[in-house]
Amino acid sequence: MSDESDAPGAGEAPDDALTDAEEAIDAARRRVAEVPAEVVITNHVMGLYELAAIHLSSDPPDLPSAALAIDAVACLVEGLGERLGSDALTMRDALANIRMAFVEIKSRVPQSAQDSLQ
Questions:
Q1: Distance of CA 78 to CAs 88, 101, 115, Å?
Q2: Phi, psi at residue 55, to the nearest 5°?
Q3: Per-residue pLDDT of the chain (118 residues; tens, 9 = 90+)
Q4: Which of 47, 56, 61, 110 is the most exposed place for a label (fewest CB within 10 A)?
Q5: DSSP conformational letter for 11
Q6: Contacts of 40 (CB under 8 A, 6+ apart)
């Protein structure tokens, strides 16, 4: 059986723990700064795309949440356009696909159910 002194950071002075945390944050910032901004933004776009897909595939579909996520994707993709770099076309295609999925799924949800979702 281990005691608390075996835990990582056990016995470490609070100032040392704070210094370690600050160093870890600085290292993470340096790693993010090395990645082109369009790559980070594209990753966020895909996260929002996945969020929309999750809401569309829930039972019943959460149309308002899916619409919000799709609108966020659109703001980034349409707002930034070619500034997204080599993935701009892929992001436009993804946006078109998730919009089509939304329309198709919405058409299958009875109007009375749609009214209760709003």
A1: 9, 18, 29
A2: -70, -35
A3: 555 555 555 666 778 888 989 999 999 899 888 999 999 999 999 999 999 999 999 999 999 999 999 999 999 999 999 999 999 999 999 999 999 999 999 999 887 655 555 5
A4: 110
A5: T
A6: 32
Structural contact between residues 38 and 83, judged by C-beta atoms closer than 8 angstroms: yes
- What the block records as the tokens of 49 is 């795309």
Token code pair at residue 110: 């009875």
Each domain of the chain, given as residue ranges in start order, spans: 36-117
- pTM score: 0.73
Which spans in the chain are helix H?
Answer: 14-34, 37-57, 63-80, 88-108, 111-117
Q: How is residue 12 written in tokens?
A: 């470490």
Q: Which two tokens stand for residue 118?
A: 């709003």
Q: Which two tokens stand for residue 94?
A: 């993804």
Which 3 state secondary structure label does DSSP give 91?
helix
Tokens encoding 100: 């089509």
